[in-house]
Fold this protein.
Amino acid sequence: MKRVYIHTFGCQMNVNDTLRMTEALQPLSYQATPTVENADLIILNTCSIREKAEDKMLSALGRYRQVKLQRGAIIGVGGCVAQQEKQKILERVPYVDFVFGPDAIAKLPEILQRVEADRVRVVETAWVDSETYVFPRADPNTSRGKATEFVTVMKGCDNVCSFCVVPHTRGREVSRAFDEVLREVASLTGVGVREVTLVGQNVNSYRGGCSFAQLLLRTAQVPGIERVRFTTSHPHDLSDELVDAFRVEPKIMGHFHLPVQSGSNDVLKRMRRDYTVVEYLERLGKLRAARPDIAVTTDIIVGFPGETEEDFEKTFALTEQVRYAGQFSFVYSPRPKTGAALREAEWGPVPHEVKIARLERLNALQKRISVELNAAFVGQTVEVLVEGASKTDAARRFGRTSHNRTVNFDGDAPIGALAHVRIGSASASALSGIQVAVGSVPAVPIPELAASPEVCVA
Ligand code: 5AD
Ligand code: SF4
């Protein structure tokens, strides 16, 4: 038995790809290990969405070099940086043995055999074209022990947001056939999973034989499924049909991640986001009319080229107006071959210290709003899907509400149960409470929480 350690950076697509890598390596007798020191194979599943993510990959590689020197471990680099940099990674880092793109996961056994037997360094970053691409099928055993799981429904992105590297690293959109998605969901309920999150770079332009709204409704009908979520969406195709799905299907959870990126129409135009702030707010209004208590979260980029103080004030005002339940805000970083990077000098780069100051102001505002919104739950009883032991106190439990709020609580409800928790206190990031009842337990008992891969959200 050999051991593989996979360090996962970035988004949920990568977390899912890591699970598929582990499965692809099983025929070669590799088992996942949570400790790099005893690994025979080290894989970095990389992210290139922002510069910082790439820097983190390079510093991790530096650390893993020791394991190679001591144990002769093989080192591979996968994910988005691999797709983008290809051969250049081998040139830059002499102790990397192979580089493989997101479409080459199924080829991992073949790649390793070449590395091990032929003692060659391998680069495998060819795209599989959309007609012939086959989504790796998840092995449900990988999900045993979990109450909630992610299911890939599409890959790639056909949008052209000028800041974003994803279309270059993940290629064109390819949707997975809906019957295959439903089969995978059914196989997950067979090992106790009760909640699924449908994932893709741009899920609401899904075209796998039905619309995305229909896919959500069908997923909710799979026996054993109690909760359905999805991520991530582009505001321009938030359809009325999708809004209606929130009106009619209570198993679709009350959370919508709707990245706005900026509150200034001028900036949105340069970002090529093809909506105005008013259009964004109109769609949000429809969503809130269909599900009044829906929690909306967003992504925002500050310091995009040419962003003036006035533009930033508009983003600040939009945050106040929408009162997001949470936001992920980032300073702009130029990415290779993207439209914004090519025109940054023309539009006017924003000085680093200005970017940081804006980010800090926005984060402080969001923190105040999150504290206020979370405080409103104190004294209420909420339904929580129990996911395992609390990360801060192993004697407590942890789960999430319909609105995707993290709840740590005292109680004994088993993993996979829907517990009723009375909230006693709240912070910006989590709620805390005491279990008052157990609503329902999973049909298939969940024995223990599976070890999760190391995730570094960069
Ligand atoms: N710089 C900063 N943030 C970025 N994002 C994407 N590309 C960049 C970039 N070049 C952010 C966007 C996106 C999120 C996943 O990452 O806000 O929604
Ligand atoms: Fe990137 Fe825009 Fe596609 Fe999202 S929608 S992955 S931000 S290009």
The radius of gyration is 22 Å.
